[in-house]
Amino acid sequence: MPNDNAVMARRREMATEHLLFKTMEYVEQRHPGLLDMLEQSLDHLGDPAEDETKDDKAVQEIARRMIEGARREI
């Protein structure tokens, strides 16, 4: 049986991503430039982990793919 905490975390992540994507699309359609600004900010995004799992580039790539996905939907 799956870990209930893991299941809830996955569900929250999916819901949050959906709401974030729709918000990004909505704002970009009304105020062009949001996605460009977000893309330019990615160098400041990092992984908060303090162990061997820390990977700033992986976190930045996830954000980059999210921005690219939002651009495709507009």
Report what the structure shows.
The chain is mainly alpha-helical and 74 residues long. The chain has one domain. Helix content is 70%, strand content 0%. The protein has three helices and no strands.
Write the layout of secondary structure elements.
Blueprint: H1 4-30, H2 34-40, H3 56-73
Helix pairs in contact: 1-3
What's the short story on this structure?
The protein has 74 residues and is mainly α.
Kindly report the average pLDDT value.
Answer: 95
Q: Mind telling me the C-alpha Rg?
A: 15 Å
Task: Give the overall silhouette.
Answer: flat
- Would you tell me the structural class of the helices and strands? mainly alpha
Low-confidence stretches: none
- One letter per element, helices H and strands E, the order comes to HHH
Helical coverage, percent range: over 70%
User: Main beta sheet, described?
Assistant: none
Q: Tell me the number of strands.
A: 0
**What is the count of distinct domains?**
1
How many angstroms does the end-to-end distance come to? 40 Å
Number of helices: 3
Strand percent estimate: under 5%
Features:
74 residues, mainly alpha, flat
